[in-house]
Write a structure and sequence with these properties.
The protein is 35% helix and 16% strand. It is an alpha/beta fold and 300 residues long. An eight-stranded parallel β-sheet has the order 3-4-5-8-9-10-11-12, covered by helices on one side.
């Protein structure tokens, strides 16, 4: 495993982390606690020290599974979670709740689910600029930082903001005590390279690269006509967009990925060859996938 300095947090973070929305059961598979334990234990053996989750991943379900899995090794892990949404069943889009009362409840429930008395990185989760511009929520969050219940604050930026070069939240990060920025970055979507990543570099903000495999499309496993099951979030994607992306993946695989290299590993390494990306958080559904993801570090 390779590690990088996480902006100015003082943390050394594994370049491969684990995104954990899949533990909520909304990606086509229900997980038992035993399965989650085995995945996280194997990841730990391989040097992974970073898990990214959110309160809306199954109404704190992902957090609870993580809390159970790492309970005896809490101090060995960097745990990031998020706030701002209410879970909805059946893969429908979560509703927003960036009220002070809502965030206070979410924070306390996240601590309870994770079985911890502190959160390493607590992230504003894909809200708009009006939701971001609430001094009372940042006052509350920075009080938790002072009380050592939150070690670092972060922002998981809306992809539409990155696509539209809207850097308002990123440019405001230091003003509200934020040290970590999470953004979409992968071979199919490089828009963050234009302005977002250079700004983060200039101001020493750590970067979490999310959906590095483009919701699994860059794994190279799916044909353009693939149909995702109804219990998989990807079944809600616009059909023509999915077809277009999967055709692009075929071209990338043919023209850019060397023979004998797994496309998923190549895609993760592609992200990490940008030294500004501190860590990436691909999901994984089994031990084999986490082992494959970690091997991507050999290609950096």
């Amino acid at each position: 495993m390779k590690y990088r300095k996480f902006g100015n947090t003082g943390l050394d973070i594994s370049v491969i982390g684990i995104g954990t929305d899949q533990f909520s059961g909304s990606w086509g598979k229900e997980f038992s606690q035993e399965e989650v334990n085995k995945i996280i234990d194997r990841a730990f053996e391989l040097g992974v020290n970073f898990l990214d989750t959110a309160e809306c991943y199954g109404d704190h379900l992902s957090e609870a599974m993580i809390g159970n899995a790492i309970n005896k090794k809490r101090h060995e892990w960097i745990i990031a979670t998020k706030f701002g949404h209410r879970y909805k069943k059946n893969n429908t889009k979560a509703s927003s709740d960036f009220s002070l009362k809502g965030i206070t409840n979410q924070f306390n429930n996240s601590l309870k689910a994770l079985k911890t008395d502190y959160i390493d990185i607590y992230q504003f989760h894909s809200g708009n600029n009006s939701e971001f511009d609430q001094h009372e929520i940042w006052d509350f969050l920075n009080e938790q930082v002072k009380d050592d219940k939150i070690k670092n604050l972060g922002i998981s930026v809306l992809n539409s903001a990155i696509d539209n070069d809207d850097l308002y939240q990123i440019e405001s990060a230091s003003k509200v005590g934020v040290k970590i920025i999470q953004m979409v970055y992968n071979r199919l979507n490089k828009n963050a390279e234009k302005k977002a990543i250079p700004f983060c570099l200039e101001h020493n903000l750590g970067i979490i690269g999310r959906v590095p495999l483009a919701r699994g499309h860059l794994s190279g496993k799916y044909e353009p006509n693939h149909k995702f099951p109804e219990n998989d979030k990807r079944s809600l994607e616009e059909k023509n967009q999915t077809i277009t992306q999967l055709k692009m993946v075929q071209d990338i695989k043919k023209n850019e990925v060397p023979d004998g290299i797994e496309m998923a590993q190549w895609s993760l390494a592609w992200c990490l060859k940008n030294p500004a990306i501190t860590t990436v958080i691909p999901g994984c559904k089994n031990i084999e996938q986490i082992e494959s993801n970690v091997k991507a570090t050999e290609l950096i």
